[in-house]
Amino acid sequence: MTKNSNFVKEVSSQFRKEDEIIVGCQLGKRSMMAATDLLASVSISMP
Asked: Which residues belong to the active site?
């Protein structure tokens, strides 16, 4: 499996940082990697 180096940029062009999105795949490994990359690209503030 080859990682898409433009993944975060492509997602960011379609969604705002405030949007809630669901990331999924068949087994969970790719979606976990994708979610990790997305979360690392934004600062998260806890209430």
From this structure: 25
